[in-house]
Structure formats: structure tokens, C-alpha cells
User: Fold these one by one.
Assistant:
Number 1:
Amino acid sequence: MADIFREVDEEVRRDKAAEFWKKYQNWIIGVAVIVILATGGWRFVEYQRRVASEQAGLKFQDAVQLAQQGKVKEAEGAFEQIARSGAAGYSVLSRLRAAAEAGAQDRDQGIKLFDALGADTTIDKTFRDLARLRAAILAVDRVSLDEARKRLEPLAGADGVYRHTARELLALAAFKAEDFDVASRWLDNLIVDAQTPASVRQRATTLQALIAAGRPAK
């Protein structure tokens, strides 16, 4: 008797499954096709991105070689071409290199290009901060202390990736402007920061000693 009921139950389930398939088979097949097409399309896009990235990498290396050979204009043009291509990663790197090559020939142009990168919110903050730092490096010895502070202080905070370089530049800018109190404060920040590179800390200590030796006794 139990076997009979089990067979009847299985038959009912098969009938229900067949009925369900007959009713919804078009929807099921359609969804399956969409999933297959989406997966295939995603893999194709990833393949295209990988190929484009590899090609951009080769072009980037060629542009670097042009720069190393002293062919500045050709290198700058090559980097700009890669930047316009929008290749992941290499586009930003190429814009940074193009700005650097331009700055080597025309400091104002380099500052302009780095400032544009620093203001571009479509790229990662780390790259924006690097561009701001590079612009400040080009500008620091030709601008006022107030302008140097405006450019560098946002990069000199405790969580700043480039804070050590920014602090050292702020100290040098203040030293140049003969504002020794400000210079000394930034040097102290460098000296007490456990993560300050040894070479930077050594320079900071030396400059701090020069400031102390040159100050009149109070």
C-alpha cells in the first residue's frame, strides 16, 4: 500500500512539473539565454579591456624610452595619446608623465597640467594628491609662502600619503621666507614622525640645527 501511494505521489509531482514546464518554458529559456549572453558579453568586454591594457602598456614603455632618449616632444605627444585613449591605469600615468615632460621644458605649463590633474575628481585621490605635490614642487621656489602653504598644507596632514615630502617643502619654503618659527614647526613634525624616511629626518635635523644656530638668543 505504501508503494502505491509513493508511486501516485511521484506521478502527481511529474504531472505538476510537466505542467509547470509547459506553462513557463518560454520564460525559463529566455532567462537562460539572457544569462548566457550576459556572461559571454562580460567575458568579451574583459578580454577587450585586457588587450587594450596590454597595448597601452607597450605604448607607455615606448614613450618612456623616448623620454630617456631626450626626445621630449615626441615623448610628451606619446603620453598624451595614451592619456586620450582612456586605457585603465595607463591613462592617468601617461597624463602624469606628460605633465612631467612638459614641466621639464616649461615650468608654468607643467604646473598647469599637474593642477588640472589634481582637480580631476574622476581619478583616484592618491593620483590627484601626487599631481598636487608635483605642481607644488615646480612652484614652491617661485611663489609666496602663503601660496606654498595653500598648495602643500592639505597634503601634510597625519594621514597624507605624501606628507613627508609636503612637510619638508613647507619647511624649506618657510626657511626661504625667513619665517623660522613656521619652518621649525614643520621640521619638528618630520623629526617626531616615526614613519619619516631616515634621509628626510636627517635633512630635517640638519636644517633644524642651522635654524637654532642662526637665531639670536632670547
Number 2:
Amino acid sequence: MSNQITNILIVGVGGQGILLASEILSEAAMLAGFDVKKSEIHGMSQRGGSVVSHVRYGSEVFSPIVPEGEGDILFGFELMETVRSLPLLRPGGTVVANDLQISPPSVLMGLETYPERLSDRIKDRFADFLMVDGQKMAAEAGNAKAANTVLLGAVSKRLSITEEFWMNALEKMVPAKALVVNKLAFKLGRECL
């Protein structure tokens, strides 16, 4: 096991399953034998506000917060939140983003417009960028609400944690009635290139 710490940021808006995704990620890393630290920042998350989860793992981790500019992977559930969090990534970092736009209240009230070409902004700054249609793939798995698990599957291919630990973490963290759908959603996400 390497002494290097892997820094992962999970961002989106309240209600997207970000906290469950960070729990599953943390559990999979612990099962793989890593020391794990996790922290969440909720900005009015019950009302669709920003949610940022920091997950760090390695042989020994002292702080749960990813220092600005040191994130290895930015795992975005919503495009504007993903772009907003790009400064947290290190140069050459990885971005896995859900192809989803959720308009904030200011856009819904007509006070602002949703920014255009967000995926182009990400591509211009980070060569390792994967866009995933999480809702569509989750619907194929049987429940569009499992988009967070599709995205976890896509991110899992970029981490040093074997599929066995991911499956064990899903079994431990996901309610039994949703497990079959979530395992399929995870596998579909893993197939994303």
C-alpha cells in the first residue's frame, strides 16, 4: 500500500445522494485496508443547495479536508456545481461529471440564466474528463434515483480499490430492497470509458 493520499471531492446539490455515495466510497476504501477520513459541507442541502463531500484515503490520513488545489478526483453530480469546484483540483486531476443541470432558484425566478457550455469549460482545463448520463443509466438499471451509484461505478475505475470491496460496501450501505438495482447501476457506471 502506498503512502500517497488520494483526495476525492464529491459535489452537487441536496437530494442527489451525495452523502450516501461518500459513505459507500469511504466504506469501500476502509474494506480495502486504507485509513479514511471524510467530511461534508452542506449549504442549505435540504432546499437543493450545494453539498460538498471530501473523502481522503491512504495508509495514514490526518485531516478530512482536501486542501484547495490538491484534489485528485472531482466527482460532480451537477454541472454548475462541478465547474464551481474545479479550483479544488490539482493540475492534471480527473473530473467525472453527471450530465445534469439543476437550475438554482435565481434561474428559476428569471433573475439569472444557467451558464452555457459548462462541459467545454471542464474539457478546456482537464484532459481526464468523463461525462456520464447518470439518470439515463440509472433508469436502465431500474431506478433513476440510483444515478449516484452509476457515478460511483464510473469513478471506481479510476481508483485503486477492487470491485469486490465496492460490492461489499454496497451490500453494507444500500437498503436491501434497492441493492439489486444499485449493483446493476454501479456495474453500468464501471463500463463508462
Number 3:
Amino acid sequence: MAQSYNRAVRWTRGRFARWAAVVFSVGLIIVFRVAQNTQPEVKEDDRLTIVEVIDGDTVRLRGGDKLRLANIDTPEKGSPLHDEATAFLEKMVLGRKARIEFADKRRDKYGRLLGFIYVDSVSVSEAILENGLAYLLLFKKSELDRPRIKRFLTAQRRAMDNKVGLFSIPHEPESYYIVRHGRFRLHRPGCRSVADLKAGSYRIFQTREEAIYEGYNPCRTCRP
């Protein structure tokens, strides 16, 4: 009886082992064939293809991400030259073979990619700035030492000298303008962003043009 029981147990175990081996082998074959035949829906390069222009400094990529052009700030919707900036970007990038270089900080707080677009070796951001359709957008002084930012500032200065785009629009002047030390926003003296500043914590400019020429960006609240 014991021998018969042992033989039955060994037979059952052997049968289970053979069954498990077959299942494992079939599983490997299926995985291999699926991996062999499956192709990515979109090539990696295609994921960076620009498929839509959202506004003057933001595009949508085929992979689904939004890309925000770093270090420039075009007019918001409803502001003068918003439509012109958007149309300019569309003309430059849609249907064209573009190259994207990502910024040091890969994404902004909204989850958008940050970078720079080049078409036929032409910097799209420089072209936008030179046509007066954006302001240079900086966050720290060290950025001014970068060759790319130096070219951006030069492009903006050309737009200012030629009085094109944003620099052709008249602004109500103030007796002076304020910039916080360590910041790159230009404010009117009555702006709430610079209320109750302590002596020595800010810099005074006599004209808005003087500040923008150095790379300061007009505040979106007080709109100097």
C-alpha cells in the first residue's frame, strides 16, 4: 500500500512538473513574439514634432506634452500683439523640421517642458524677440552670462532701437520705476508687488526703456 501511494505521489509530482514546464515554455514564446512584433506607436523623434501652436511662446508636441519657450514672454490672450505673436510662431514652426533643445530646468511648475526651438539653425526665440513680439524673461543675474541669453538680449535691443512690435506701443510714463534687488521684474512705483519696500532693497530706473534694455521684464500686474 505504501509503495503504491509513493508511486502515485511521484507520478503526480512529475506530471505537475511537466505541466508547469510546458506552461512556462509557452509563456516565454508568447512574450517573445509579442515583443518582437510590437512597434512603438510613435517614434521618439516624432514625439517631439510640433503639432499645434497654443500661443506666442507655447506649442504642443505629438507626444502630448506642451513645450514653453524658455526665457521669453509673449503677450497673453487679450493683450496687444498676442495674435501677431501666435501667428508668427505658427509660420516659423508648423510644417517645418524643427530641433528642440531643452532648458536646464526640464519642466515648469505647470508641467510644461521648457526649451528652445531651432528651424534651419535659426533660433525661433531670437526671431520673436527681434520682431518685438516678446520680452526677455530672466530669473537670476547669472543667466546674463550665458551666450544664448546674450544673443536674446541683443535681439531685444534691436527691436527696441527699431521701435517694432511691443516697443512701438506707447505707455503712460512714471516719474521712476522700481526693481527689487535679486529680481528681474520692472514695476511702477504704485504696484502692490513693491509696496513697503525697505531702503536699499531696490533699484530705481528713470525710464522703463532703460530697465528693459538691461534685461528686466515688465510686471504683468502694473504693466509699466
Number 4:
Amino acid sequence: MINYPIARKKHEKTNNRANLGMTLESDIESTNTYYLVNDIAVIHKKPTPIQVVNVSYPARNKAKITEAYYKTPSTTDFNGIYKGHYIDFDAKETNSKTSMPLKNVHLHQIEHLKQVDKHGGIAFLIVHFKQYDEYFLLPSKVLFAYWDLQNDEKKGRKSIPYETFKNEAYLIKFGFKPRLDYLKVIDTYYLAKLK
């Protein structure tokens, strides 16, 4: 009897923008779980506020939301506390090799991060350049400078160049436990300056 190999279906990779950022978010959530379990920090993903309009009850124990709307625009993805400091940030991914489009960031997120920064919190973005598989912590001040430039008719920019990330952001190394140790960057570049 001859055992022939089983033909395997080829899976084509699709560019589905709906899940853009889900891998980054799950890596951050895994990192945050590591921080929590090891009593390092308490940082969580914020739930998106929704208004439930319609619920289907096919069975008593199987309620299913069939229609819902966002109540208000969500601010940022993550917030919490580390060594007595409030932390607030958002996760973004880009397929571009040259820049991160500013259209990935929304006005209400900028306004929220500016308020956090104004009141002494640590505000930033974690940005994944997928083409290079590099992760950066982008300080809020750099983000704000480029955001303000986009509205300047003479200097207007629609993105933050990759070179800016190399020069003004902080590389986050990908590891096993934790996956994205962004608190190491916070220790080195933020909290060390406060001492």
C-alpha cells in the first residue's frame, strides 16, 4: 500500500484593512497581561462605547446583538498606571516603507493625547512598520508637531516620515516575554529624566 501525500490547499494572503492592527493590539495585550501578572503595571485596552439598539434571542441563553452604534468616538486604545505615572497610548500599523499616514490618527485622539500630556501623563503611539517588522514608541510631542504641520499651507504634511521614527522615536524590541517591552522605553527615556 502506498501512502500518497495529501494535497494541501494554498492559502492566499489577502490585504484586509479591517484587521489592520489586530496583531499589534494582541501583542500589546499579551505584553500588558505579562505586566499585570508580574505586578509591573496595570494597563488595559479600553472598550469601545456602543449603544445597543437590537438584540436577537434565538434561545434563552444565546442572546445576540444584531444592531449597535458607536456612542462616542473612542479616544485611544490603552491606558493605565506604571510606577505612579498615568500612561495613555494608541497602537497604529502601516504597510508603507516611507511613512506613517496621519490619516491613521483622528482629531479626537490628538485632542485626548494633548490633554493627557498637559496634565502630566505619558502619552504616545506605538507604531508598527510592517514592511520592516519594526516597532516604535512615538512620543506625543513628535506626533503633535507633525499633526500641526499638516494644517500649515506652506509646510503641510500628510504623514510622518520613517526617518523621523528612526531619529526621534524609540525602537521597541520584539521578544518572547513580554512581546513588546515598551515600559523599558518608558523607563529609559521618560522616567530616567525625572530623577
